């Protein structure tokens, strides 16, 4: 990775950290919020024969994490191209 200037490097890392924090907040909200804090409210909603709160605690947070990995890869590839630090 070769940045043209230190300002460009700082901007790249600022956007990278911002993206990571946003995705971690989403993951925390789904795993802790939906799986623990809101479990009683979500258990009132059935999903394929299971209570929604139980589903989020057991499966939903894992699925969300996997989706967030793909979102991160896609966004980071776009960010790398934006700052011209991508690999061929």
Automatic annotation (TrEMBL):
NCBIfam families referenced in this protein's UniProt entry, alphabetically: Na_symport_sm
Regions annotated as coiled coil: none
Segments traversing the membrane: 21-42, 54-73
Source species: Rheinheimera marina
Keywords, in A-Z order: Membrane, Transmembrane, Transmembrane helix
Stored InterPro entries: Na_symporter_ssu
Protein name: DUF4212 domain-containing protein
Residues annotated as domain Sodium symporter small subunit: 9-86
Transmembrane helix found in the keyword field: yes
One family name in Pfam for this protein: DUF4212
């Amino acid at each position: 990775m070769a940045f043209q200037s230190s300002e460009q490097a700082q901007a790249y890392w600022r956007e990278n950290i911002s993206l990571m924090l946003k995705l971690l907040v989403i993951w925390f909200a789904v795993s802790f919020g939906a799986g623990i804090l809101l479990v009683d409210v979500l258990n009132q909603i059935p999903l394929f024969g299971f209570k929604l709160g139980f589903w989020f605690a057991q499966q939903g947070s894992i699925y969300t994490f996997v989706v967030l990995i793909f979102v991160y890869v896609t966004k980071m590839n776009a960010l790398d191209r934006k700052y011209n630090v991508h690999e061929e």
